[in-house]
């Protein structure tokens, strides 16, 4: 009798009721060409761990074991195995199946219905509407992972859908779920889902919502939860930090003008409005027009107009609403020369810097509200200043001018607290941006706090009452150099670098 040969190149081989195949498998197992890794499941891979082999062939294996099963409940929303490597399938019966590296929770229920999609050959993936109904169903796990999400997780998920895709998508999901509820016999679950969606959309009372994000959206002030985590991290670091006390220097009226000029000059240079310092002085002190660059000249003048006004710079927000008013009024002055940038108006489209995507337009107000709650809990003026600047820089509420307005808000806190202002010279630009990036992407607060503290120390050592002396000190400190051309040199006490 001719021997049956198995496809040795296949990593997994399924057991078969066909005698010839069964004999061939037994022969190859005895010869060491195959090994058994699960019931009626063999592999030709004799090196890798069974859990690794099953993991990369998981859906092919499950399709063979349970053809027609639907990836459902939390597994459908999570796109695969949940915590503890548990995958839930709706099938003909209820059973827990343990395979190396994964537990399969079979749940008796209806097979594929309208909206479910074919998945990896012999399986189906539950539609989002079906998965939401299944996740709302009561789910208690005495051991292991529950088949459904918590109410808060579902509300957070619905809030995220609304944030990204808008109200229309939630309404579409609700309509789809309404049709499926009868077929799946989940009418009670649909009522709960309907109430959640209605509350988030603001068409019903939000008293039953448990998610802070969803409640905020229902009240019309949704916020960026990821950013709030970063703000909370910074708040904790600033609350623990013992920051240096550098009082505001005794400046004459002219000294204040000089300080404000250099603050405005460097703040604009960082953002790409590049003038030779003498040109900028002509614009600010002598109102000299620059016909080729009128908008850039307006940028420097607008910044100077704000930071040279002691009364304006002494104002700090007393409430979240006041913070928003303050931001808009200052931005209107800052970008008065650029009407195309929407001076005084929050952005209407998402903005980004490199790989960093800032807060979505509809989350700006709510995120500022949440950030203000942390800001007002800080006491030290420098801590409040550091927090305020990062809050504005990270939310990026405007189409343009966000960096400048963030630094204006930083120094307003310091002026109000009678502390030395902070100037970010051109040569320090990379240190400044890298510190912001480390906090944004890794939640690392140390470089940010250290960077601003050093910049304040630098500013405190420049004698601004004498314009020429200040200019000399700044030049000796490499302040006007590009970061690729040198490093910041800390002036000695008295203004000599």
Automatic annotation (TrEMBL):
The keyword ATP-binding applies. One of its GO terms (molecular function) is ATP binding. The keyword Nucleotide-binding applies. ATP binds at residues 400-407. InterPro entries: Fido, Fido-like_dom_sf, Fido_containing. The lineage of its organism: Bacteria, Pseudomonadati, Pseudomonadota, Candidatus Muproteobacteria. Pfam families: Fic (PF02661). It comes from Candidatus Muproteobacteria bacterium RIFCSPLOWO2_01_FULL_60_18. Residues 322-454 form the Fido domain. It comes from the Bacteria. The active site is at residue 396. Keywords: ATP-binding, Nucleotide-binding. This is Fido domain-containing protein.
